[in-house]
Amino acid sequence: MGDMVVVRREGLYCVPGDFYIDPWRPVDRAVITHAHGDHARYGHGHYLSAASSVGVLKSRLGADIHIDGIEYGDTVTHNGVAISLHPAGHVLGSAQIRMECGGEVWVASGDYKVEPDKTCAPFEPVRCDTFITESTFGLPIYRWEPEAQVIEEMNAWWRKNADEGRCSVVFAYSFGKAQRILSRLDPSIGPIVCHGAVEPLNRVYRASGVDLPATLMVSEIDKAALRRAIVIAPPSSSGSPWMKRFGDYSDSFASGWMLLRGARRRRGVDRGFVLSDHADWPGLMSAIKATEAEKVIVTHGSIPTMVRWLCQNGLDAKGFDTEYGDEEEDEASPPAGAAANKETASSGEPPSGEPDA
Amino acid sequence: MREFARLYAELDETTSTTRKLDALQSYFSKAAPENAAWAVYFLAGGKPRQAVPTKLLRQYAIEYAELDEWLFDESYHAVGDMAETIAHILPPPSQRSDVGLAEWMEQRIGPLRGADPGTIREALYAAWDELDWRERFLFVKLIGGGFRVGVSRLLVTRALAAIAAVDSKLIAQRLMGWTDNSVRPTATSFLQLIAAQSDEEHKLRGGQPYPFFLAHQLQGDPAALGEVDDWQVEWKYDGIRAQLVRRGGQNFLWSRGEDLITERFPELANVHIPEGTVLDGEVLIWQPGCPAPAPFADLQKRIGRKTLGPKILGELPAVLCCYDLLEFGGVDLRALPQHERRALMETEVAAIDLPQLRLSPVIQADSWDALATLREESRERGVEGMMLKARSAQYGVGRTKDVGTWWKWKVDPYTIDAVLIYAQAGSGRRASLYTDYTFAVWDGEGEERKLVPFAKAYSGLTDAEIAQVDNAVRKTTIEKFGPVRSVKPTMVFEIGFEGIALSTRHKAGIAVRFPRILRRRQDKPVDEADTLDTLKGLLAAASP
After folding, report:
1. I need a labelling partner for B434 at 20 to 30 A (CA). Which of A246, B332, B413, B520 fits?
2. How many domains are there within chain A?
């Protein structure tokens, strides 16, 4: 039997099932791992996702898309392929896609994170023969400290700024990262303000039963109170006129890329908080091991490095070229040239279109 | 180490001067004096000799992390810094310690220099297992001798002045010589550094130099400086700025980087000058009877030597070209106006009357125009241009203007249009961006015509331009050799440099001094870039 999943022009394609996984071009049937823009695109005929992803997908792609949601662990069969979705721990509703056909099991991970958090179902290892894994942080330098510790540092930074009468601004991706931060902020320090791109997602999270502290829009807070506030805003708002109202603020960026000094300095923020929605190197390795897969296919990130390392460790590994990781709203692309972008933006020229991760 | 690591993180994370100053003050007010002493040493730019060779650091990190060499190298290319790579690549520590910086430096790191590999390995493993990644980063930096931090010496001086409640100029004075490796920072020396001002300042000074007074770059027309008569004009020499100090019956020669370089220049180490004298000037190679000093390249040959035999001392004799007198008869003269110091210096240098001490002549001219004309002779005279010193100026501390100003009025750099042929990723802020370039010029005719590399340059482009070039490098790569890429010749840059000399070490047979990128020549096709003959022409014209 040939490969159950191959790469086509449109995206990852399940051959016996005749459907696509997170396709980047319009197709008839798409199974969606999660609702970040590079994985969930417009224009497909039918969508299938985890039930907890349906709300976000509809809010982003339009309420009229043709979509079915299934609970984690439930199975639907399509053209003889048994499809079930399993938590990926990346963002609300993120799923690994398990496909079983003729006694063979393949799992496509989408994006995943191994450390559990309060805002989504925790990553669940799924046994399979072939595992398609992401590799965003596929270098052994990437090791995360526990989320609780990182956000505790963020609280301390916020408290210090508030005591000095300075607003704290955190740049974080609107979907996922922002809510993880919110879930652990200490509201006793001061008011929490969310950018207009973040607040609609907060509503979706709350509607799914995720406990988030009270948040305000910038229009709902007076200027004096802003001096004790923390503001959660998407990275793209950095350097925009929207920021002017915060006066002498201290800024920070929450991303796995902030681990490296070079990236942090290019970003040009006061603080970098190393907080990622993706697995770190030990996480990738433990996840791959837990699947017990003999074949591993590596997608977006450090493909050659991971493939070489996995092969050396006795696995049958290869890479798939995909078009994931080019979205501004996710950290899937490294931040090279980010500072240059910032400069261009502030000088009023059109942005160069590089990812702003 | 934990406190120092926290200080480092705070200094590294913010660009705000106020916050850096806060962090420094908070550290110095809490740290134990023996640890603070080492912190001052490092923050003021101290560079200890490397305790463990990079090769061993790398090898043991790979073994400890149980990785392969290639995977370590991949990681290193992504990070752009050896210490940072090691800090992140090792598994988390199994225990935590909090040993002070002084103990680390004196008892744990110091003894590793020259130790056998087994001992080094054991020490590294033990240290790595008790430090978190921030501390490991510092540990490797301290061990590898590559510590740098984004804080100016001036800021460290200000922080210490605030802690000590004394004038920051006094701190600057006391800090002189701190980073020289012949003295070890101690609790006592730190307490002296922040002590109240005493009558014994001069005695405490020992062989230390004064803070160097630094010149500002003159942009635009010197006529804006007022009457030409108010200025003392001299040639600007291209050598090693140095102070020759005579105290306690001994000579001390200090470079501007505050390295004690006495032993490198025996002709100045042994020159007999009156007790309690400090001369400021430029160390140059200058053949007796020659009208001009030798190019900087000759001085480099001296600096590079471990041992100085009679042959090289004879072929490349060093002189101190004196231009200021800072102390005489044990009295600090820095508050005297420039012209008075000059008069005293002329008298003293004449009295000493030794060929190793030359006077930097004052250039006489009755107008700025006349000076401008004379300045055209700079290259033939082997100098970089002129120095303009306010006749009323005191000798200031560092690059200040509060007590008078020195200007450097340099001739325009040489320029050449060259082709980018190799690119390498930078480090630090520029890690994973192609920012370090090798430039080439054309050599030969017709079919034989080829590009020969002649200079490397790192600076001169804006972040936006770097992003463009980085992009082009990735698109036009021919081959990768480790971190270096050879690229298809498509980009022409105007390269500026200060000096040019023959070289046997460079492929082009020519070495240029201070090459930097002036601009990208997008208007110029690669074929029309300059040739090796153009460079040789510049060399011929420059040779006096």
Report:
1. B413
2. 2
3-state secondary structure at position B279: strand
Q: Which of B364, B413, B405, B345 is CA-nearest to residue B385?
A: B413
Taking residues B265-277, report their average pLDDT.
92
Give the DSSP letter of residue A139: S
**Pairing state of beta strands A12-14 and A5-7?**
antiparallel
Q: What is the CATH number of the domain that holds B229?
A: 3.30.470.30
Q: Does A153 touch chain B (CB under 8 A)?
A: no
Closest by CA to B40, choosing from B53, B28, B52, B23, is B28
Tell me which residue has tokens 């942080």: A137
Say how many C-beta atoms besides its own lie within 10 A of residue B10's C-beta: 16
Which residues of chain B make contact with A312, given a CB cutoff of 8 A?
68
CB atoms within 10 A of CB A332: 24
Neighbours of B276 (CB within 10 A): 16
In B444-509, the DSSP E strands lie at 450-457, 477-481, 484-487, 492-497, 499-502
* Beta-bridge mates of residue A100: A82, A105
Return the SS3 of B376: coil
Mark out the alpha helices in B321-477 (DSSP H runs). Answer: 338-352, 368-375, 463-475
Number of domains within chain B: 2
B233 and B377 share one domain: yes
Structure tokens at B254: 């200090």
* Cut 0.80: pTM above it: no
Mean pLDDT of chain B: 90
> Is A354 part of any domain?
no
Phi, psi of A316 (to 5 degrees): -95, 100
B153-164 vs B17-30: helix crossing angle, rounded to 10: 50
Between these two residues, A1 and B29, which has the higher pLDDT value?
A: B29
Name which of B286, B292, B348, B341 is nearest B315 in CA terms.
Answer: B286
Q: Are residues B536 and B453 in the same domain?
A: yes
Task: Name the residue facing A340 among B68, B85, B464 (closest C-beta).
Answer: B464
In a domain, B23, yes or no: no
Q: Which of A64-68, A156-160, A276-280, B409-413 has the lowest mean pLDDT?
A: B409-413
**Based on the number of CB atoms within 10 Å of its own CB, is B120 exposed (0-12), middle (13-18) or buried (19 or more)?**
buried
Q: DSSP letter at B106?
A: I
**Per-residue model confidence as pLDDT tens digits over A315-351:** 999 999 888 875 555 666 555 433 333 332 333 333 3
Confidence of residue B459 (pLDDT cuts 50, 70, 90): confident
Contacts of A143 in chain B (CB under 8 A): 88, 91-92, 133
Same domain, A210 and A109: no
My answer on whether B430 and B383 are in the same domain is: no
Question: The tokens of A334 are what?
Answer: 């490294």
The rounded distance, in Å, linking the Cα atoms of B323 and A201 is: 70
What burial class does residue B402 get, using C-beta atoms within 10 Å of its C-beta: 0-12 exposed, 13-18 middle, 19+ buried?
exposed
Q: How many CA atoms lie within 13 A of A266 on its CB side?
A: 30
| Position B260 in a domain | yes
Nearest to A229 by CA among A250, A198, A210, A208: A250
Enumerate residues 6+ apart whose C-beta is below 8 A from B69. B62
Residue B446 inside a domain? The answer is yes
A308 in contact with B, Cβ within 8 Å: yes
pLDDT tens digit sequence for B61-79: 999 999 999 999 999 988 9
CATH number at residue A235: 3.40.50
Q: State which residues form the domain around A24.
A: 5-142+277-319
Of the candidates B151, B137, B142, B160, which has an alpha carbon nearest to the alpha carbon of residue B14?
A: B151
Chain B residues closer than 8 Å to A334 by CB: 432
CA distance A38 to A330: 8
Q: Which of B70, B74, B140 to mutate to test the interface with A (most CBs of A within 10 A)?
A: B74
Domain extent at residue B393: 216-410
Mark whether A52 and A129 lie in a shared domain: yes
